[in-house]
Sequence to fold (734 residues):
Amino acid sequence: MKLKMNRRSVLKTLVSSAVSAAFLRPGGNASAHDFSGYETNRGVLVDLSRCIGCRSCEAACNREQGLPAPHIAFDDQSVFEQEHSRRPDQNAYTVVNKYDSLLWEHPLFRKIQCNHCLEPACLTACFVNAYTKTPEGAVVYNADVCVGCRTCMIACPFSIPAFRYDSAFSPRIMKCIFCYDTRLSKGRPPACVEACPMEALTFGNRQELLSIARKRMRREPHRYVDYIYGEHEAGGTSWLYISPVPFAKAGFDMEVPKQPILNFVKDFLAMVPMVLTIWPGLFAGIFLLCRRRGSVAGTGESQESKISGEIIDESHGE
Amino acid sequence: MKVMENNSEILSGYGGGYEPADEARISEKLLLGLSGRQYLDLIVKNPVNWAVAAILVIGIPLLLQRYLMGLSSVTHGSQDYPWGIILGFGLFGMVPLSASGFMLGTTVEIFQRADFKPIERLALLNGLLGYFFAVVFLLVDLGMPWRLHYAMFVSFGPAAVLFLVAWHVATYLSVQIAEMLPAFAEWANLPRLKRFVRSIVLGLTIAGIILSTLHQGALGALFCYAPGKIHPLWISPEFQWLHYFVSSIFGGLCMVIVVSSLVRRYMTWRCDTNFLGNLDGITLGLAKGAAMAFITYLIIKIVAVAHDEEWLYLVSGWGIYYLAELFTMAVVPLCLFAVGVRHRRVTLVRWGALIAVLGIVWNRLNTVLVSYNWTSHQEIPTWQECWLVATILCFYFIVYRFVLYRLPVLFTHKSA
Ligand code: SF4
Ligand code: SF4
Fold:
């Protein structure tokens, strides 16, 4: 009889933990599965062989996004000697770096900005859903819900998002948004693309850009290495790069996984429902086993039986 | 040692007034039954308080500076190291050391090992305060601390690992508060409250096990978002959550050993014979449990290196550093525990536990700071950042001591 009451209280425990489990389950992880990008995903193809490092794109971005004035003017080329490897930060959504290479007729320049991944790591890592992937392919950020945990900065394989650390009351993530509000949503290319005098940046549908890239590589094989950076990096990105020298020589990180970053946390996420469903029963069972042993032994330490006795009494009381 | 004698001298000087009667007013209980003057005396005469005050005198203005002038006024504000020592120590280091609550909760309530009962409440308190202060550390480091509750009530990103951490830590914090309520009820003389909590203790404990397994693991899984940035020896996506979970098992146990050794020595007056008399045996028991976890940890560490085929990394400089960490964190404590348990040398176990505790913190800092961005530059925290960590630790110490002085944690209440 006593044991029965006890079982009931165990059952109650089981039910309540199952209920709480239902609330605590990270349910959304299915949404990110098998997602290979929107058909309408726009992108930009960057041709390193055409870029001359004029920094017009940097200037255009600065103007379009109303960012603070740079401490080295945009027409000042000395920035390349003064600061070797710049990265996008709280004052600049895009930067151009210079790479001297003996393999090519002129120095190479690489424009860096958010690559607008097909399965953005920043988006999947953010626990308040501050990022959105728009049907046009842009990955935009909502400062109104961001908590400032900076996990997105940890997660982005290209180290793009930057944090405004110097603001006490309105800090936020700063990151290229593909000029979504002002241009992309209206079907227009971003400011940087329009500003480029060398047509080093080509705006278009990602699929088309991939075939344009292949066509250029086929037509002038001596001008390009046989690789499109961004086709597979981090599961594919909207911004794509082709280059006359091996990408590692132009500062590209070749260690970036060729699959979405989300894949690396899937193992853990898959384990979560298992723990939530198996643990309550398992430990309730162990509890019963231990309890029975205690009461069968009977002669066990007095304190021990006192404890189990207490629990039984209380379930009676309810 | 001196400190303890001071305190107990003072306290016994006042006729053992530190245990006011059950019916005493809460205000009297708060002052340990001393008068205001006597209590102040107690504080001023303790040199530890002066050390704490020295840290706070600089630390509190630094804290204000952080909130009024932004994070970068006290840190490097590095874009390449989004997480610094505040989170590395405060969140990733504190949480595994606070697994003690669920470990001893399970041992006593589920496995019904009454022999561990005397230390259960200390373990629960250690867990509760550890989590609470991990949240405090988080509040220092978050960009917008005033939005801490957003993941619960405003905007949801349920597929994110941090979402799980946030929810679980929040829920678990409430579970731990509930688990500590009986001690509070005894102190405040509220027997009905205590009876109620006892009736749901099994549910609380099982909830604690689930939540702990998941969020301890989740803290490890957070690093799986950065597989390319962390040195391969410190990250293995398949096993990361297991590493973090298993190390939290011995982390929690070792932390209780360390804390109980400290209170046994410096707060003897507050412990009853049930606690003091059983502590050596309990310490050895905890050491046995921790030893199992050490062995498991070492095995899965080796499996991870083998699985990711990282043997070659082990002979690099990073490998030596990695092995040094592994030895500090698990091998040395394991050996000390083995000898200590075999020959019943409790002191060895206590030192082993301290080494393991430091080892875990070192491991977390290595993941967040040292091995992070290993192919580019290394970030060294600013002194202000480190001072802030010390400041929050002082608050932790003050609160911890405050509670231990009062609630029936180290002694059994008359009514129990
Ligand atoms: S490049 Fe980084 S910030 Fe941009 S979408 Fe990809 S993960 Fe997000
Ligand atoms: S910093 Fe903001 S946007 Fe980035 S993960 Fe945290 S809450 Fe999301």
